[in-house]
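In response to reviewer comment 3 from the previous cycle, which asked for concrete evidence that the modeling workflow produces usable outputs, we include below a single protein chain processed end to end. The sequence was submitted unchanged, and the resulting C-alpha coordinates are shown without manual editing.
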Amino acid sequence: MTPPRAANVAAPRSAPASAAGGVTYVVGHRNPDADAMCSAIAYAAFKEAKGETGFVAARCGNSNARIDAILTRFRVPLPHYLSDVSPRVRDVMTNEVVHVNDQATCAEALELIDRHQVRVLPAANTRRKPVGLISLAQLGGVFIPRVSEPRLMRQVHSSLAAIARALKGQAIHLVDAERVEDLFVRLGTMDIRSFWSISVRENIPAEQSIIIVGDRGDVQRRAIDLGIRALVVTSSLPVAPEVEAAARERGVSIISSPYDSATTAWVVRTASNLERVIDRSFLTVDADTRVADARKQFGLSTQAVLVTDDEGRLAGILTKSDILKPVRTRLVLVDHNELTQAVPGAEEVAIAEIIDHHRLGSLNTAQPILFINEPVGSTCTIVADLFRREGLQPSPPIAGIMMSGLISDTLHLKGPTTTRKDALILAWLGEIAGVDSNHLAEEIFSSGSVILAQTPDKMVRSDFKVYEEEGVRFSVSQVEELGFGNFEANAKGIARAVQELREGERLAFAALLVTDINTQNSLLLVKGENAFLEQIRYARRELDDLFDLPGVVSRKKQLIPYLTTVIKEMAADGTLSAGKSTSPSGRRRR
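The workflow returned the following C-alpha coordinates.
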Protein backbone atom coordinates (compact mmCIF):
# COMPACT_ATOMS: atom_id res chain seq x y z
CA MET A 1 0.00 0.00 0.00
CA THR A 2 1.30 3.49 -0.83
CA PRO A 3 2.26 5.33 2.38
CA PRO A 4 -0.38 7.93 3.15
CA ARG A 5 0.62 11.52 2.53
CA ALA A 6 0.29 13.88 5.45
CA ALA A 7 -2.74 16.17 5.48
CA ASN A 8 -1.32 19.43 6.77
CA VAL A 9 -4.32 20.40 8.83
CA ALA A 10 -4.65 20.46 12.60
CA ALA A 11 -8.38 21.03 12.76
CA PRO A 12 -11.16 22.19 10.45
CA ARG A 13 -12.50 25.71 10.63
CA SER A 14 -15.08 26.11 13.36
CA ALA A 15 -16.81 29.17 11.88
CA PRO A 16 -18.88 29.36 8.69
CA ALA A 17 -16.85 29.49 5.50
CA SER A 18 -17.47 32.04 2.80
CA ALA A 19 -17.00 29.75 -0.15
CA ALA A 20 -18.51 30.88 -3.42
CA GLY A 21 -20.63 27.75 -3.55
CA GLY A 22 -22.09 28.26 -0.07
CA VAL A 23 -21.47 26.43 3.18
CA THR A 24 -21.69 22.67 3.73
CA TYR A 25 -22.10 21.88 7.41
CA VAL A 26 -20.85 18.52 8.65
CA VAL A 27 -23.13 17.84 11.59
CA GLY A 28 -24.03 15.00 13.91
CA HIS A 29 -27.39 14.26 15.48
CA ARG A 30 -29.23 16.33 18.05
CA ASN A 31 -27.87 16.05 21.58
CA PRO A 32 -24.57 14.73 20.19
CA ASP A 33 -22.43 12.11 21.85
CA ALA A 34 -18.65 11.93 21.47
CA ASP A 35 -18.78 9.93 18.23
CA ALA A 36 -21.17 12.40 16.57
CA MET A 37 -19.07 15.40 17.59
CA CYS A 38 -15.72 13.80 16.77
CA SER A 39 -16.81 12.39 13.41
CA ALA A 40 -18.12 15.81 12.35
CA ILE A 41 -14.77 17.41 13.17
CA ALA A 42 -12.85 14.60 11.49
CA TYR A 43 -14.93 14.49 8.30
CA ALA A 44 -14.62 18.27 7.81
CA ALA A 45 -10.84 17.82 8.22
CA PHE A 46 -10.92 14.97 5.67
CA LYS A 47 -12.68 17.18 3.13
CA GLU A 48 -10.18 19.96 3.72
CA ALA A 49 -7.30 17.51 3.33
CA LYS A 50 -8.73 16.52 -0.06
CA GLY A 51 -8.77 20.16 -1.13
CA GLU A 52 -12.57 20.52 -0.99
CA THR A 53 -13.55 23.90 0.40
CA GLY A 54 -16.59 25.17 2.26
CA PHE A 55 -17.01 22.23 4.67
CA VAL A 56 -17.50 23.33 8.27
CA ALA A 57 -17.71 21.10 11.33
CA ALA A 58 -20.92 21.80 13.21
CA ARG A 59 -23.10 20.57 16.07
CA CYS A 60 -26.82 20.89 16.80
CA GLY A 61 -26.65 20.36 20.52
CA ASN A 62 -24.64 21.17 23.61
CA SER A 63 -21.34 19.63 24.57
CA ASN A 64 -20.83 17.59 27.74
CA ALA A 65 -18.03 16.81 30.15
CA ARG A 66 -16.72 13.91 28.09
CA ILE A 67 -16.69 15.84 24.82
CA ASP A 68 -15.10 18.85 26.51
CA ALA A 69 -12.36 16.61 27.91
CA ILE A 70 -11.66 15.15 24.47
CA LEU A 71 -11.52 18.53 22.70
CA THR A 72 -9.33 20.00 25.44
CA ARG A 73 -7.00 16.99 25.30
CA PHE A 74 -6.33 17.51 21.59
CA ARG A 75 -6.72 21.31 21.52
CA VAL A 76 -9.50 21.27 18.97
CA PRO A 77 -12.23 23.97 19.11
CA LEU A 78 -15.89 23.18 19.68
CA PRO A 79 -17.70 22.96 16.31
CA HIS A 80 -19.94 25.75 15.07
CA TYR A 81 -23.39 25.64 16.70
CA LEU A 82 -26.50 25.25 14.52
CA SER A 83 -29.86 25.75 16.17
CA ASP A 84 -31.87 25.60 12.93
CA VAL A 85 -30.83 25.38 9.28
CA SER A 86 -34.21 26.36 7.84
CA PRO A 87 -33.58 28.77 4.96
CA ARG A 88 -33.89 32.35 6.14
CA VAL A 89 -34.83 35.47 4.24
CA ARG A 90 -31.22 36.66 4.44
CA ASP A 91 -30.17 33.59 2.44
CA VAL A 92 -32.21 34.51 -0.63
CA MET A 93 -33.01 38.24 -0.43
CA THR A 94 -31.33 40.92 -2.53
CA ASN A 95 -28.97 42.75 -0.16
CA GLU A 96 -27.79 45.60 -2.38
CA VAL A 97 -31.30 46.89 -2.85
CA VAL A 98 -31.86 49.70 -5.35
CA HIS A 99 -34.22 52.25 -3.87
CA VAL A 100 -35.41 55.81 -4.52
CA ASN A 101 -35.95 58.72 -2.17
CA ASP A 102 -39.62 59.38 -1.55
CA GLN A 103 -39.10 63.03 -2.61
CA ALA A 104 -37.68 62.03 -6.00
CA THR A 105 -39.48 62.37 -9.33
CA CYS A 106 -41.05 59.75 -11.55
CA ALA A 107 -38.25 60.43 -14.04
CA GLU A 108 -35.61 59.51 -11.45
CA ALA A 109 -37.53 56.38 -10.52
CA LEU A 110 -37.86 55.38 -14.18
CA GLU A 111 -34.15 55.89 -14.70
CA LEU A 112 -33.32 53.60 -11.76
CA ILE A 113 -35.74 50.93 -12.98
CA ASP A 114 -34.25 51.06 -16.47
CA ARG A 115 -30.62 51.17 -15.38
CA HIS A 116 -30.86 48.30 -12.90
CA GLN A 117 -33.49 46.25 -14.76
CA VAL A 118 -35.74 45.88 -11.70
CA ARG A 119 -39.49 45.40 -11.73
CA VAL A 120 -40.26 46.97 -8.39
CA LEU A 121 -38.50 49.84 -6.62
CA PRO A 122 -38.69 50.55 -2.87
CA ALA A 123 -39.17 54.18 -1.83
CA ALA A 124 -37.53 55.29 1.41
CA ASN A 125 -37.16 58.52 3.33
CA THR A 126 -33.89 60.25 4.13
CA ARG A 127 -33.38 57.92 7.13
CA ARG A 128 -33.64 54.90 4.78
CA LYS A 129 -36.94 53.85 6.33
CA PRO A 130 -39.27 52.40 3.66
CA VAL A 131 -42.49 54.22 2.85
CA GLY A 132 -43.75 52.08 -0.04
CA LEU A 133 -43.15 50.43 -3.40
CA ILE A 134 -43.13 51.69 -6.98
CA SER A 135 -43.64 49.52 -10.04
CA LEU A 136 -43.69 50.14 -13.77
CA ALA A 137 -47.42 49.46 -13.74
CA GLN A 138 -47.97 52.23 -11.19
CA LEU A 139 -45.76 54.65 -13.10
CA GLY A 140 -47.57 53.76 -16.30
CA GLY A 141 -50.84 54.69 -14.69
CA VAL A 142 -49.59 58.26 -14.33
CA PHE A 143 -48.62 58.65 -17.97
CA ILE A 144 -51.35 56.71 -19.78
CA PRO A 145 -53.61 59.27 -21.52
CA ARG A 146 -57.05 59.75 -19.97
CA VAL A 147 -59.06 61.48 -22.70
CA SER A 148 -62.03 61.74 -20.38
CA GLU A 149 -59.94 63.78 -17.93
CA PRO A 150 -57.92 66.22 -20.06
CA ARG A 151 -57.12 68.44 -17.10
CA LEU A 152 -55.59 65.50 -15.19
CA MET A 153 -53.57 64.58 -18.29
CA ARG A 154 -51.84 67.96 -18.09
CA GLN A 155 -51.18 67.94 -14.35
CA VAL A 156 -47.66 67.75 -12.90
CA HIS A 157 -47.04 67.73 -9.15
CA SER A 158 -43.46 68.87 -8.89
CA SER A 159 -41.07 71.82 -8.58
CA LEU A 160 -39.45 73.82 -11.35
CA ALA A 161 -36.02 72.67 -10.19
CA ALA A 162 -37.09 69.03 -10.52
CA ILE A 163 -38.53 69.72 -13.99
CA ALA A 164 -35.25 71.32 -15.10
CA ARG A 165 -33.33 68.28 -13.80
CA ALA A 166 -35.67 65.86 -15.59
CA LEU A 167 -35.21 67.75 -18.84
CA LYS A 168 -31.45 67.96 -18.32
CA GLY A 169 -32.03 71.49 -19.51
CA GLN A 170 -30.73 74.96 -18.69
CA ALA A 171 -32.46 77.02 -16.05
CA ILE A 172 -32.33 80.49 -17.60
CA HIS A 173 -34.42 82.08 -14.87
CA LEU A 174 -36.19 80.32 -12.00
CA VAL A 175 -38.50 81.83 -9.41
CA ASP A 176 -39.06 79.90 -6.16
CA ALA A 177 -37.50 76.86 -7.85
CA GLU A 178 -37.86 74.29 -5.05
CA ARG A 179 -41.56 74.87 -4.31
CA VAL A 180 -43.57 71.68 -4.94
CA GLU A 181 -46.93 72.53 -6.48
CA ASP A 182 -49.60 71.41 -8.93
CA LEU A 183 -48.77 72.66 -12.42
CA PHE A 184 -50.49 72.15 -15.78
CA VAL A 185 -48.69 71.64 -19.08
CA ARG A 186 -49.74 73.31 -22.36
CA LEU A 187 -48.17 73.32 -25.82
CA GLY A 188 -47.93 76.75 -27.47
CA THR A 189 -48.31 75.41 -30.98
CA MET A 190 -51.54 77.11 -32.05
CA ASP A 191 -52.15 80.57 -33.46
CA ILE A 192 -51.67 83.44 -31.05
CA ARG A 193 -55.38 84.31 -31.29
CA SER A 194 -56.50 80.94 -29.91
CA PHE A 195 -53.48 80.19 -27.77
CA TRP A 196 -55.13 80.66 -24.34
CA SER A 197 -58.67 79.56 -25.12
CA ILE A 198 -58.27 75.95 -23.95
CA SER A 199 -56.81 77.04 -20.61
CA VAL A 200 -59.81 79.28 -20.12
CA ARG A 201 -62.25 76.43 -20.85
CA GLU A 202 -60.43 74.08 -18.44
CA ASN A 203 -60.23 76.79 -15.78
CA ILE A 204 -56.44 76.53 -15.47
CA PRO A 205 -54.99 79.66 -13.82
CA ALA A 206 -52.03 81.28 -15.56
CA GLU A 207 -49.88 81.14 -12.42
CA GLN A 208 -50.17 77.31 -12.50
CA SER A 209 -49.41 76.95 -16.20
CA ILE A 210 -46.26 75.71 -17.92
CA ILE A 211 -46.16 76.66 -21.61
CA ILE A 212 -43.99 74.56 -23.89
CA VAL A 213 -43.08 76.46 -27.04
CA GLY A 214 -40.45 76.68 -29.75
CA ASP A 215 -39.07 79.95 -31.17
CA ARG A 216 -42.46 81.61 -31.53
CA GLY A 217 -41.77 85.02 -30.00
CA ASP A 218 -45.39 86.12 -30.12
CA VAL A 219 -46.57 83.13 -28.04
CA GLN A 220 -43.66 83.55 -25.65
CA ARG A 221 -44.49 87.23 -25.03
CA ARG A 222 -48.25 86.54 -24.73
CA ALA A 223 -47.59 83.83 -22.13
CA ILE A 224 -45.37 86.18 -20.16
CA ASP A 225 -48.00 88.88 -20.31
CA LEU A 226 -50.53 86.42 -18.87
CA GLY A 227 -48.18 85.78 -15.91
CA ILE A 228 -47.70 82.05 -16.40
CA ARG A 229 -45.59 80.05 -13.95
CA ALA A 230 -42.93 78.95 -16.45
CA LEU A 231 -41.97 79.03 -20.09
CA VAL A 232 -40.13 76.00 -21.52
CA VAL A 233 -38.37 76.70 -24.80
CA THR A 234 -37.66 73.52 -26.78
CA SER A 235 -34.80 72.23 -28.93
CA SER A 236 -32.27 74.46 -27.11
CA LEU A 237 -33.49 77.39 -29.22
CA PRO A 238 -32.19 80.79 -28.16
CA VAL A 239 -34.36 83.08 -26.08
CA ALA A 240 -34.47 86.69 -27.22
CA PRO A 241 -32.99 89.14 -24.70
CA GLU A 242 -36.19 91.17 -24.60
CA VAL A 243 -38.22 88.01 -23.85
CA GLU A 244 -35.89 87.07 -20.99
CA ALA A 245 -36.03 90.63 -19.65
CA ALA A 246 -39.83 90.62 -19.74
CA ALA A 247 -39.95 87.27 -17.96
CA ARG A 248 -37.69 88.52 -15.19
CA GLU A 249 -39.85 91.61 -14.78
CA ARG A 250 -43.09 89.58 -14.52
CA GLY A 251 -41.55 86.83 -12.31
CA VAL A 252 -41.95 84.18 -15.01
CA SER A 253 -39.44 81.32 -15.02
CA ILE A 254 -37.69 80.19 -18.21
CA ILE A 255 -36.18 76.73 -18.84
CA SER A 256 -34.37 75.71 -22.05
CA SER A 257 -35.07 72.07 -23.07
CA PRO A 258 -32.82 70.06 -25.41
CA TYR A 259 -35.83 68.03 -26.65
CA ASP A 260 -38.53 68.74 -29.23
CA SER A 261 -41.98 69.81 -28.08
CA ALA A 262 -43.57 66.34 -27.87
CA THR A 263 -40.64 64.84 -25.97
CA THR A 264 -40.37 67.85 -23.70
CA ALA A 265 -44.07 67.57 -22.76
CA TRP A 266 -43.64 63.88 -21.88
CA VAL A 267 -40.46 64.47 -19.83
CA VAL A 268 -42.08 67.33 -17.93
CA ARG A 269 -44.86 64.99 -16.88
CA THR A 270 -42.26 62.46 -15.64
CA ALA A 271 -40.96 65.17 -13.31
CA SER A 272 -44.02 64.65 -11.14
CA ASN A 273 -43.29 63.90 -7.50
CA LEU A 274 -43.64 60.22 -6.52
CA GLU A 275 -46.24 60.95 -3.86
CA ARG A 276 -49.21 59.81 -5.99
CA VAL A 277 -47.35 56.78 -7.34
CA ILE A 278 -46.06 55.13 -4.17
CA ASP A 279 -48.01 52.05 -3.04
CA ARG A 280 -48.00 52.44 0.72
CA SER A 281 -49.68 49.12 1.51
CA PHE A 282 -46.39 47.24 1.58
CA LEU A 283 -45.27 44.33 3.76
CA THR A 284 -42.02 43.95 5.70
CA VAL A 285 -40.14 41.00 7.18
CA ASP A 286 -37.01 40.53 9.25
CA ALA A 287 -33.93 39.02 7.62
CA ASP A 288 -34.07 36.17 10.16
CA THR A 289 -37.60 35.15 9.13
CA ARG A 290 -37.88 31.62 7.76
CA VAL A 291 -38.40 31.59 3.99
CA ALA A 292 -41.34 29.22 4.50
CA ASP A 293 -43.04 31.86 6.69
CA ALA A 294 -42.15 34.75 4.39
CA ARG A 295 -43.62 32.84 1.44
CA LYS A 296 -47.03 32.98 3.13
CA GLN A 297 -47.05 36.78 2.83
CA PHE A 298 -47.03 36.68 -0.96
CA GLY A 299 -50.51 37.02 -2.41
CA LEU A 300 -51.50 37.13 -6.07
CA SER A 301 -50.86 40.87 -6.29
CA THR A 302 -47.81 40.99 -4.01
CA GLN A 303 -44.72 41.73 -6.07
CA ALA A 304 -42.19 42.07 -3.27
CA VAL A 305 -41.76 42.19 0.49
CA LEU A 306 -39.31 44.65 2.03
CA VAL A 307 -36.70 43.45 4.51
CA THR A 308 -35.96 45.77 7.42
CA ASP A 309 -33.39 45.77 10.20
CA ASP A 310 -33.94 46.24 13.93
CA GLU A 311 -34.19 50.00 13.46
CA GLY A 312 -36.80 49.69 10.73
CA ARG A 313 -34.34 50.69 8.00
CA LEU A 314 -34.38 49.13 4.56
CA ALA A 315 -31.99 46.14 4.54
CA GLY A 316 -33.09 44.25 1.43
CA ILE A 317 -35.92 43.17 -0.78
CA LEU A 318 -37.56 39.78 -1.26
CA THR A 319 -39.35 39.08 -4.54
CA LYS A 320 -41.34 36.09 -5.76
CA SER A 321 -38.36 34.92 -7.78
CA ASP A 322 -36.14 35.19 -4.68
CA ILE A 323 -38.21 32.71 -2.67
CA LEU A 324 -37.74 30.15 -5.47
CA LYS A 325 -33.95 30.43 -5.39
CA PRO A 326 -32.08 27.29 -4.33
CA VAL A 327 -30.55 27.69 -0.88
CA ARG A 328 -26.79 27.24 -0.95
CA THR A 329 -26.59 25.75 2.56
CA ARG A 330 -25.94 21.99 2.42
CA LEU A 331 -25.54 19.31 5.07
CA VAL A 332 -23.40 16.24 5.55
CA LEU A 333 -25.05 14.08 8.20
CA VAL A 334 -22.69 12.01 10.32
CA ASP A 335 -23.61 9.36 12.90
CA HIS A 336 -27.31 9.44 11.93
CA ASN A 337 -29.59 9.21 8.91
CA GLU A 338 -33.05 9.98 10.29
CA LEU A 339 -34.70 13.41 10.10
CA THR A 340 -36.13 13.01 13.59
CA GLN A 341 -32.53 13.09 14.85
CA ALA A 342 -31.20 15.73 12.45
CA VAL A 343 -30.73 19.44 13.03
CA PRO A 344 -34.07 21.33 12.81
CA GLY A 345 -34.75 22.49 9.27
CA ALA A 346 -32.70 19.69 7.66
CA GLU A 347 -35.68 18.73 5.50
CA GLU A 348 -35.65 22.23 3.92
CA VAL A 349 -32.04 22.20 2.70
CA ALA A 350 -29.95 19.89 0.54
CA ILE A 351 -28.44 16.86 2.24
CA ALA A 352 -25.28 16.21 0.25
CA GLU A 353 -23.79 13.17 2.02
CA ILE A 354 -24.45 10.77 4.89
CA ILE A 355 -21.75 8.92 6.83
CA ASP A 356 -23.28 6.57 9.39
CA HIS A 357 -23.21 3.20 11.14
CA HIS A 358 -26.84 2.97 12.32
CA ARG A 359 -29.96 1.36 10.91
CA LEU A 360 -31.55 3.00 7.88
CA GLY A 361 -34.36 5.45 8.54
CA SER A 362 -36.96 6.85 6.14
CA LEU A 363 -34.99 9.85 4.92
CA ASN A 364 -35.55 10.92 1.30
CA THR A 365 -33.36 13.17 -0.85
CA ALA A 366 -34.17 15.06 -4.05
CA GLN A 367 -30.95 13.94 -5.76
CA PRO A 368 -28.64 10.93 -5.50
CA ILE A 369 -26.07 11.45 -2.75
CA LEU A 370 -22.98 9.80 -1.30
CA PHE A 371 -24.29 7.50 1.45
CA ILE A 372 -21.75 5.42 3.37
CA ASN A 373 -23.31 3.12 5.94
CA GLU A 374 -21.15 0.42 7.52
CA PRO A 375 -21.90 -1.99 10.37
CA VAL A 376 -18.95 -0.90 12.50
CA GLY A 377 -18.75 0.34 16.05
CA SER A 378 -18.16 4.02 15.36
CA THR A 379 -18.65 6.63 12.66
CA CYS A 380 -15.10 7.76 13.40
CA THR A 381 -13.97 4.32 12.18
CA ILE A 382 -15.56 5.03 8.79
CA VAL A 383 -14.02 8.51 8.54
CA ALA A 384 -10.57 7.24 9.49
CA ASP A 385 -10.87 4.50 6.90
CA LEU A 386 -11.67 7.17 4.27
CA PHE A 387 -8.38 8.89 5.14
CA ARG A 388 -6.58 5.58 4.55
CA ARG A 389 -8.36 4.84 1.27
CA GLU A 390 -7.41 8.24 -0.11
CA GLY A 391 -3.78 7.84 0.96
CA LEU A 392 -4.12 10.71 3.42
CA GLN A 393 -2.72 10.83 6.93
CA PRO A 394 -4.66 12.93 9.43
CA SER A 395 -2.77 15.29 11.69
CA PRO A 396 -2.06 13.95 15.21
CA PRO A 397 -4.88 16.03 16.81
CA ILE A 398 -7.44 14.81 14.27
CA ALA A 399 -6.20 11.23 14.71
CA GLY A 400 -6.68 11.66 18.47
CA ILE A 401 -10.18 13.05 17.94
CA MET A 402 -11.13 9.98 15.87
CA MET A 403 -9.60 7.67 18.47
CA SER A 404 -11.76 9.33 21.12
CA GLY A 405 -15.01 8.93 19.17
CA LEU A 406 -14.18 5.31 18.42
CA ILE A 407 -13.25 4.49 22.02
CA SER A 408 -16.35 6.20 23.37
CA ASP A 409 -18.80 4.48 21.01
CA THR A 410 -17.27 0.97 21.32
CA LEU A 411 -16.48 1.21 25.05
CA HIS A 412 -12.83 0.79 24.06
CA LEU A 413 -13.56 -2.16 21.77
CA LYS A 414 -15.54 -3.99 24.47
CA GLY A 415 -19.04 -3.18 23.23
CA PRO A 416 -21.16 -5.58 21.14
CA THR A 417 -20.96 -3.32 18.08
CA THR A 418 -17.17 -3.62 17.90
CA THR A 419 -15.71 -5.11 14.72
CA ARG A 420 -12.23 -6.15 13.59
CA LYS A 421 -12.04 -2.98 11.51
CA ASP A 422 -12.57 -0.84 14.65
CA ALA A 423 -9.58 -2.50 16.30
CA LEU A 424 -7.35 -2.09 13.22
CA ILE A 425 -8.32 1.54 12.76
CA LEU A 426 -7.78 2.32 16.45
CA ALA A 427 -4.24 0.90 16.28
CA TRP A 428 -3.49 2.90 13.11
CA LEU A 429 -4.77 6.12 14.65
CA GLY A 430 -2.81 5.51 17.86
CA GLU A 431 0.45 5.42 15.91
CA ILE A 432 -0.33 8.71 14.16
CA ALA A 433 -1.54 10.49 17.30
CA GLY A 434 1.24 9.07 19.45
CA VAL A 435 -1.35 8.15 22.07
CA ASP A 436 -1.87 4.89 23.94
CA SER A 437 -5.52 3.90 23.58
CA ASN A 438 -5.68 2.44 27.12
CA HIS A 439 -4.56 5.70 28.66
CA LEU A 440 -6.91 7.68 26.42
CA ALA A 441 -9.85 5.44 27.33
CA GLU A 442 -9.13 5.98 31.01
CA GLU A 443 -9.10 9.75 30.48
CA ILE A 444 -12.36 9.68 28.53
CA PHE A 445 -14.36 7.46 30.87
CA SER A 446 -13.15 9.23 34.00
CA SER A 447 -13.82 12.68 32.59
CA GLY A 448 -16.81 13.19 34.84
CA SER A 449 -20.25 11.84 35.54
CA VAL A 450 -22.96 13.22 33.28
CA ILE A 451 -25.48 12.53 36.04
CA LEU A 452 -23.57 14.65 38.54
CA ALA A 453 -22.53 17.35 36.05
CA GLN A 454 -26.03 18.16 34.80
CA THR A 455 -29.54 18.60 36.10
CA PRO A 456 -31.83 15.60 35.45
CA ASP A 457 -33.76 17.32 32.66
CA LYS A 458 -30.56 18.28 30.84
CA MET A 459 -29.00 14.88 31.48
CA VAL A 460 -31.83 12.91 29.86
CA ARG A 461 -31.61 15.20 26.82
CA SER A 462 -27.81 15.17 26.58
CA ASP A 463 -27.82 12.09 24.33
CA PHE A 464 -31.36 11.15 23.38
CA LYS A 465 -32.72 10.06 20.03
CA VAL A 466 -36.27 9.84 18.73
CA TYR A 467 -37.39 6.79 16.75
CA GLU A 468 -40.59 5.71 15.06
CA GLU A 469 -41.83 2.15 14.52
CA GLU A 470 -45.32 1.02 13.52
CA GLY A 471 -46.50 4.63 13.96
CA VAL A 472 -45.12 4.74 17.52
CA ARG A 473 -42.75 7.60 18.36
CA PHE A 474 -40.42 6.94 21.24
CA SER A 475 -37.06 8.13 22.53
CA VAL A 476 -34.05 6.44 24.07
CA SER A 477 -31.43 8.39 26.03
CA GLN A 478 -28.15 6.89 27.15
CA VAL A 479 -25.54 7.78 29.74
CA GLU A 480 -22.38 5.86 30.56
CA GLU A 481 -21.16 5.79 34.15
CA LEU A 482 -18.53 4.11 36.26
CA GLY A 483 -21.02 2.12 38.36
CA PHE A 484 -24.69 2.79 39.14
CA GLY A 485 -24.16 4.71 42.38
CA ASN A 486 -24.73 8.17 40.93
CA PHE A 487 -27.91 7.02 39.20
CA GLU A 488 -29.34 5.31 42.25
CA ALA A 489 -28.71 8.39 44.39
CA ASN A 490 -30.66 10.57 41.95
CA ALA A 491 -33.18 8.04 40.61
CA LYS A 492 -36.37 9.88 41.62
CA GLY A 493 -35.39 13.18 39.99
CA ILE A 494 -34.20 11.38 36.89
CA ALA A 495 -37.48 9.43 36.66
CA ARG A 496 -39.44 12.70 36.79
CA ALA A 497 -37.22 14.15 34.04
CA VAL A 498 -37.83 11.14 31.78
CA GLN A 499 -41.59 11.49 32.28
CA GLU A 500 -41.41 15.23 31.49
CA LEU A 501 -39.40 14.41 28.37
CA ARG A 502 -42.10 11.99 27.26
CA GLU A 503 -44.87 14.53 27.82
CA GLY A 504 -42.97 17.44 26.27
CA GLU A 505 -42.11 15.54 23.09
CA ARG A 506 -45.55 13.83 22.84
CA LEU A 507 -43.99 10.35 22.86
CA ALA A 508 -45.57 6.94 23.40
CA PHE A 509 -42.74 6.18 25.80
CA ALA A 510 -39.35 7.58 26.80
CA ALA A 511 -36.47 5.43 27.97
CA LEU A 512 -33.09 6.04 29.61
CA LEU A 513 -30.30 3.45 29.31
CA VAL A 514 -27.74 3.81 32.09
CA THR A 515 -24.64 1.78 31.23
CA ASP A 516 -21.92 0.72 33.68
CA ILE A 517 -18.67 0.83 31.70
CA ASN A 518 -16.88 -1.42 34.19
CA THR A 519 -19.34 -4.31 34.37
CA GLN A 520 -20.79 -3.93 30.84
CA ASN A 521 -24.33 -4.04 32.27
CA SER A 522 -27.15 -1.50 32.06
CA LEU A 523 -30.30 -0.29 33.77
CA LEU A 524 -33.32 0.77 31.69
CA LEU A 525 -35.71 3.40 33.01
CA VAL A 526 -38.95 3.57 30.96
CA LYS A 527 -41.89 5.95 31.22
CA GLY A 528 -44.90 4.81 29.19
CA GLU A 529 -48.21 2.98 29.25
CA ASN A 530 -48.46 -0.07 31.53
CA ALA A 531 -49.51 -2.19 28.56
CA PHE A 532 -46.11 -1.55 27.01
CA LEU A 533 -44.08 -1.89 30.22
CA GLU A 534 -45.62 -5.29 30.86
CA GLN A 535 -44.21 -6.56 27.55
CA ILE A 536 -40.60 -5.88 28.59
CA ARG A 537 -39.23 -9.28 29.61
CA TYR A 538 -36.24 -8.10 31.60
CA ALA A 539 -36.25 -8.28 35.41
CA ARG A 540 -37.71 -5.27 37.16
CA ARG A 541 -35.95 -3.48 39.99
CA GLU A 542 -37.57 -1.90 43.02
CA LEU A 543 -39.02 0.88 40.89
CA ASP A 544 -41.80 -0.44 38.65
CA ASP A 545 -40.37 1.37 35.61
CA LEU A 546 -36.73 0.27 36.09
CA PHE A 547 -35.33 -2.88 34.45
CA ASP A 548 -32.07 -4.78 34.85
CA LEU A 549 -30.35 -5.40 31.47
CA PRO A 550 -27.27 -7.59 32.06
CA GLY A 551 -24.82 -7.57 29.16
CA VAL A 552 -26.69 -4.81 27.31
CA VAL A 553 -24.51 -1.79 26.54
CA SER A 554 -25.44 -0.81 23.00
CA ARG A 555 -28.49 1.32 22.31
CA LYS A 556 -28.11 0.79 18.57
CA LYS A 557 -27.37 -2.92 18.33
CA GLN A 558 -29.08 -4.35 21.40
CA LEU A 559 -31.75 -2.12 22.89
CA ILE A 560 -33.39 -0.58 19.80
CA PRO A 561 -33.83 -3.96 18.03
CA TYR A 562 -35.38 -5.35 21.22
CA LEU A 563 -37.80 -2.44 21.67
CA THR A 564 -38.88 -2.49 18.01
CA THR A 565 -39.54 -6.23 18.32
CA VAL A 566 -41.80 -5.58 21.32
CA ILE A 567 -43.68 -2.90 19.38
CA LYS A 568 -44.16 -5.17 16.37
CA GLU A 569 -45.43 -8.01 18.57
CA MET A 570 -47.95 -5.67 20.18
CA ALA A 571 -49.06 -4.47 16.75
CA ALA A 572 -49.53 -8.07 15.63
CA ASP A 573 -51.70 -9.06 18.59
CA GLY A 574 -53.72 -5.81 18.56
CA THR A 575 -52.51 -4.44 21.90
CA LEU A 576 -50.54 -1.53 20.41
CA SER A 577 -53.26 1.14 20.55
CA ALA A 578 -52.47 2.06 24.13
CA GLY A 579 -48.95 2.97 23.10
CA LYS A 580 -49.74 5.12 20.10
CA SER A 581 -48.22 8.58 20.33
CA THR A 582 -50.13 11.74 19.64
CA SER A 583 -49.26 14.44 17.17
CA PRO A 584 -48.79 18.07 18.30
CA SER A 585 -52.41 18.74 17.38
CA GLY A 586 -53.48 16.19 19.92
CA ARG A 587 -54.88 13.73 17.39
CA ARG A 588 -53.93 10.10 17.76
CA ARG A 589 -51.36 8.93 15.21
CA ARG A 590 -52.45 6.14 12.85
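Residues 555-573 form the longest helix (19 residues). We consider this sufficient to address the reviewer's concern, and the full set will be provided in the supplementary archive.
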